User: Which sequence fits this backbone?
């Protein structure tokens, strides 16, 4: 009997491992060489997506768009890997190592979660150009793509202040890390610069290393419900997929507006039912940055150092779908100009 | 209901331990009334209206149900002697399969699929632990890993292709599911909302609590509440339940009386999986409208904690889940200020504790409680809000505190987690 027990334990453990491995294997081997003629082969782009990967309707998809555009123009065979929720820094290092040691150049890491992995890997491959989205990693062969999301959030704040009737506005952040605090800072400043008497209430869904706040629509919904009950009528959520919960809740209340983030959420088919309550979205165009980098490598002058994508170069913007901010567009345009010219300095921390 | 739990259990139920008698109905009502007065006082003093608002109570209920169902699932399994740490995995299966069937055929079919998905997870756990005698913890952990991997893999295939993708599905998320019907009692709800709006001491608080329970109540929540009653009835009032519990207390004795222990364990663990699956499906369909990767967020484990808090009984478990839901919802809805108000409640609780311990001549504990009460009161008076890191820890700290205070009274089923082979008593 004991042997049977051990055998079964081993069997189950193996099955579990095999299945989790399958889940990662499936994504790892998914290389889309569809548009490449592979004859040229000079440009081998390696890209490691964050959790969700291609098809997430968010920043991974945006990065994929940039990659597709570049592949179409410059040819070559890209290799795509996708991270899992359970991945550790070591797993992520392995992804980057796989790409770089197989001769892929540039190697693009999508998402701030790759920062530690990149710090460890980049020095090992000095001839490869690395890039990271949403984080700054020092190194002579690293292109740190940061997005001036405080700037787009500032504009979102202006729109919120102009559209709010109660003068009470809400901000929901997924996790209270530096990145999301930047969203909060810009948004608050945008509101108070426009209407100094307006009040912004801030709520985070999780703190520290607990990243569940990015994937808990129920928490987003609770936070939004709490805000609505306090008389808040515009809610901006920078909280990944938790934001869908808050958008749904806000949509149920007449006259209240939700502001989306990262991608143009008005266009998201999953939110089609609620799109009439989505005022605008603070969009981050990762595709612009990814394309820029691939182009620079293709031209033999790889981008390195800290490159910021902001309102000026189209890296971030405010979505206009739905036409709900059409009436205030002139004001928004004027402020955009002021931000670009440096007349308005947008805060990075609250 | 959930509002009462924060104040009641630790301070006042404890005398029952000494006399070893069950709480009678008048005593319970007295405790509930006392708790309500305490909460109403806190609201009046701090002005944190969300402490008893109907929105808060409704939100708390919604947060409590998945945790409560997970706890109930654990209760069934552990009462039959099988530790079920795979609840998290079964919840993941429930949310995944619930959403998969739900977006195509509506929430009711989704609920069914979620329950079946969870029950399948239970079946795997039962085969491993009952038939093959695998260590319960090992099997449970393996099951959770398996569920995570399998759903991640299947989500890529099922949610990111064809019609699902055009409707908004992606590898992390299912297409949206239609809403589950909800109940609002006509006449009563608006009237309660009207009373609540006056902010009268106690009366409005009561209206808020009741209003939260009868406004926008999801049908799934009602079913979950009924399941609590049904569990109590089946496990403690029927021969089937008696036999099932005997498998968790003394399987060898049960066997000697002709009970087929294996069959009862199988039934309990599969039912347990089904309940956890319901919890997962609830998460995907009531507070949200889609499956999201990582949506369960450890609620299976919190459900286990709620079950232990409830001393392996449905009533106590419901209180534990309610306590967690209440604090979680409070911190999400109103953050710092509301958690700040809870500090005062904690002070009240500790003062009561100190008085009680003093009257029982345990002076050291009395002084300790009094000192903590004084420190907390000082903190309360010196600040207006609580740092957000502490705020989001509120539900966990509250659960931990109550667990620590009531731990001495807990008794788990005697043969819980112990290996059992047929005929081992011979």
Assistant:
């Amino acid at each position: 009997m004991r042997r049977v027990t051990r055998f079964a334990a081993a069997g189950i453990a193996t099955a579990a491992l095999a299945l989790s491995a399958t889940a990662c294997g499936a994504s790892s081997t998914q290389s889309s060489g569809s548009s490449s003629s592979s004859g040229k082969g000079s440009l081998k782009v390696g890209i490691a997506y964050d959790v969700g990967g291609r098809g997430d309707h968010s920043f991974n998809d945006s990065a994929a768009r940039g990659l597709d555009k570049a592949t179409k123009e410059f040819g070559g065979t890209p290799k795509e890997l996708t991270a899992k929720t359970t991945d550790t820094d070591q797993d992520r290092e392995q992804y980057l190592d796989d790409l770089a040691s197989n001769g892929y150049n540039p190697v693009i890491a999508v998402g701030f979660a790759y920062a530690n992995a990149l710090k460890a890997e980049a020095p090992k491959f000095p001839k490869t150009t690395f890039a990271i989205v949403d984080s700054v990693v020092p190194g002579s062969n690293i292109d740190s793509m940061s997005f001036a999301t405080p700037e787009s959030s500032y504009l979102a704040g202006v729109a919120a202040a102009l559209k709010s009737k109660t003068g009470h506005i809400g901000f929901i952040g997924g996790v209270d890390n530096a990145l999301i605090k930047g969203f909060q800072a810009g948004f608050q400043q945008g509101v108070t610069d426009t209407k100094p008497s307006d009040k912004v209430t801030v709520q985070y869904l999780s703190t520290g290393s607990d990243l569940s706040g990015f994937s808990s629509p129920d928490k987003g919904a609770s936070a939004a419900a709490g805000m609505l009950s306090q008389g808040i009528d515009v809610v901006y959520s920078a909280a990944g997929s938790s934001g869908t919960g808050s958008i749904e809740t806000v949509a149920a209340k007449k006259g209240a507006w939700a502001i989306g983030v990262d991608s143009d959420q008005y266009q998201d088919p999953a939110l089609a039912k609620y799109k009439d309550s989505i005022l605008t979205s603070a969009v981050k165009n990762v595709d612009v940055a990814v394309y820029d980098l691939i182009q620079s490598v293709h031209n033999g002058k790889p981008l390195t150092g800290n490159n910021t994508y902001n309102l000026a170069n189209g890296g971030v913007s405010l979505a206009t779908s739905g036409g709900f901010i059409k009436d205030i567009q002139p004001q928004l345009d004027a402020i955009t100009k002021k931000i670009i010219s440096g007349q308005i300095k947008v805060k990075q921390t609250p | 209901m959930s509002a009462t739990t924060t104040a009641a259990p630790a301070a006042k139920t404890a005398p029952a331990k000494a006399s070893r008698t069950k709480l009678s109905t008048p005593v319970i009502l007295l405790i509930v009334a006392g708790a309500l007065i305490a909460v109403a006082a806190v609201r009046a003093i701090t002005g944190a209206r969300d402490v008893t608002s109907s929105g808060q109570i409704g939100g708390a209920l919604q947060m409590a149900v998945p945790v409560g169902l997970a706890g109930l699932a654990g209760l069934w399994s552990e009462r039959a002697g099988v530790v079920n740490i795979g609840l998290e995995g079964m919840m993941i299966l429930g949310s995944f399969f619930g959403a998969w069937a739900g977006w195509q055929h509506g929430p009711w079919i989704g609920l069914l699929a979620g329950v079946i998905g969870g029950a399948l997870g239970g079946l795997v756990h039962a085969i491993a632990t009952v038939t093959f005698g695998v260590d319960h913890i090992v099997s449970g952990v393996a099951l959770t890993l398996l569920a995570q991997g399998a759903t991640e893999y299947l989500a890529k295939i099922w949610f990111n292709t064809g019609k699902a993708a055009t409707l908004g599905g992606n590898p992390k998320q299912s297409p949206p599911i239609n809403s589950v019907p909800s109940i609002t009692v006509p006449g009563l709800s608006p009237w309660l909302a009207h009373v609540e709006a006056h902010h009268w001491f106690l009366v409005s608080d009561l209206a808020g609590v009741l209003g939260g329970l009868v406004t926008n109540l999801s049908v799934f929540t009602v079913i979950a509440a009924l399941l609590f009653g049904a569990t109590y009835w089946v496990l403690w009032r029927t021969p089937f339940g008696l036999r099932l519990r005997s498998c968790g207390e003394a399987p060898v004795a049960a066997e000697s009386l002709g009970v087929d222990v294996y069959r009862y364990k199988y039934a309990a663990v599969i039912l347990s999986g089904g309940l956890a699956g319901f919890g997962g499906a609830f998460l995907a369909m009531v507070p949200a409208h889609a499956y999201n990767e990582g949506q369960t967020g450890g609620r299976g484990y919190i459900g286990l904690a709620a079950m232990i808090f409830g001393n392996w009984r449905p009533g106590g478990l419901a209180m534990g889940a309610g306590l967690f839901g209440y604090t979680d919802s409070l911190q999400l809805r109103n953050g710092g200020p509301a958690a700040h108000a809870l500090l005062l409640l904690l002070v009240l609780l500790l003062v009561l504790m100190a008085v009680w311990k003093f009257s029982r001549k345990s002076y050291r504990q009395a002084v300790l409680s009094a000192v903590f009460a004084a420190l907390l009161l000082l903190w309360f008076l010196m600040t207006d809000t609580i740092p957000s890191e502490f705020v989001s820890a509120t539900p966990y700290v509250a659960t931990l505190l109550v667990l620590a205070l009531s731990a001495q009274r807990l008794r788990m089923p005697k043969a819980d987690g112990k290996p059992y082979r047929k005929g081992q008593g011979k």
